[in-house]
Amino acid sequence: MSKPEDFDEHLKNLGLKLIKSLEEFAETERQPWENPVFKTRYMNPISGTRYNMENAVQLSMAAEDQGFTTPYFLTAKQAFDAGMRIKKGSEASWIAQHFVIAKPLTKKNSQGQEEILLDSDGNPKMYRRVGSKQVPVFNLDQLTGPIPDKIQQIINAQTKIATSEQVETVYQSLIDTMPTPLTRIIEPTGQHNYYSPSNDSINMAPSNLFKSRLHEFHTLAHEVSHSYGHSSRKNRESLAKYGQSNEYRGFEELVANLSAERTADHFKLEFEGDSLEEKNAAFKANHESYNLGWAVAGLKDNPMKIWDAIRQADQTSSTMIYAMSEDLKAKLERNPALEVPDILKASIQAKKDSEAAYEQKQAEKPTKTRKYKR
């Protein structure tokens, strides 16, 4: 796909296409995370970094249009540095890269010199500008040459589903890093699993009432996602106005469900076979009011809103994933025998390899000597 002339128009068209896809799933009462758009793990195989959901949606559509068979995308420079080449005639796919430009505010003093403005604490006042740009990437199918070992290691790790011991480790990490208190009370109303914004706490049914630890993880991750919408954290409007309309309710549930799914997906916690239906039933039982149709109805007339939902889910899950990854890395350092998902180990190794390669490159640079005139 060629580079879109207008980025907003590009997102709007993709949003319309995605909403149509979600409508089809809503009609069959299937959940959005069953959609390949959200289910496929789009990844940069050099760094081991997963593309965020916003870019994953764009890459999934590029993959559909061009018939790619792999979810791995990297830049032309990364491919070149890895010893691979781009096939002649290959068309780039595009991802969004958001950035913040920050610089100190200045003013000219009486001597005409630039002077940095300071706040009441004596720190520089900063000017910040948020921007976006589109970056071209290429699918692994578009490259020639042998696949380097470090890429193959990431690919191999992607095929390994977490064991029950690894699920237990990740589940405990979610509990250890969640930002709110956790209680275990069986409510007379039967609503056992919920987040209370007024108390800023999560209540869950006792573990023995869940069919598996994986079911419990998904339910807890869903509630943790809600908790991050609190005014003291991400201040999500859809949580604050949850009871005001079906649009807010559907939007918030979509954000929470996508956040929970991406968090589980990141650590390779997967349901298999018939238990997929059990997972959907578990979410519906936890939130009887949830209906994807509400979210779709609210998004249909404003296709850019779908990107807002995706970004908020991505921001929330990224916060959860980062906290859990740091927690698991620290635990792994203390106990190398700890059962953690293989994808986490592969990502840690990929980062170490990248840092070592950078240091080696810096060390090989010729030292410049400065000449002085006498």
Task: Outline the fold blueprint.
Layout (H helix, E strand, L loop, with lengths): L6 H21 L8 H4 L3 E2 L4 E2 L2 H14 L6 E2 L1 H6 L3 E2 L6 E12 L1 E3 L5 E3 L9 E14 L3 E2 L4 H10 L5 H14 L4 E2 L10 E3 L4 E3 L9 H15 L9 H4 L5 H21 L8 H12 L5 H9 L3 H31 L7 H23 L10
Parallel strand pairs: 10-12
Antiparallel strand pairs: 1-2, 3-8, 4-9, 5-8, 6-7, 11-12
Key traits:
3-stranded mixed β-sheet; 13 helices; alpha+beta; SsDNA-binding domain-containing protein; 2 domains; MPTase-PolyVal; 3-stranded antiparallel β-sheet; single chain; 374 residues; 12 strands
Give the DSSP E fraction (strand runs of 2 or more residues): 5-15%
- Write down the Rg: 23 Å
Poorly predicted segments: 286-291
Strand pairing plus helix content: what structural class? alpha+beta
**Count the helices. How many?**
13
Cα(first) to Cα(last) distance is: 60 Å
**What does the main sheet amount to?**
3 strands, antiparallel
The helix-strand sequence is HHEEHEHEEEEEEHHEEEHHHHHHH
Describe the structure.
- The chain is an alpha+beta fold and 374 residues long.
- It folds into 2 domains: 7-155, no CATH class; 160-350, no CATH class.
- It is built from 13 helices and 12 strands.
- It has helices at 7-27, 36-39, 53-66, 76-81, 149-158, 164-177, 213-227, 237-240, 246-266, 275-286, 292-300, 304-334, 342-364; strands at residues 43-44, 49-50, 73-74, 85-86, 93-104, 106-108, 114-116, 126-139, 143-144, 182-183, 194-196, 201-203.
- The strands form 5 sheets. A 3-stranded antiparallel sheet has the order 3-8-5. The chain has a 3-stranded mixed sheet with strand order 10-12-11, covered by helices on one side.
- Strand 6 and strand 7 (114-116) form a beta hairpin.
- The protein is globular, with a radius of gyration of 23 Å.
- Residues 286-291 have low confidence and may be disordered.
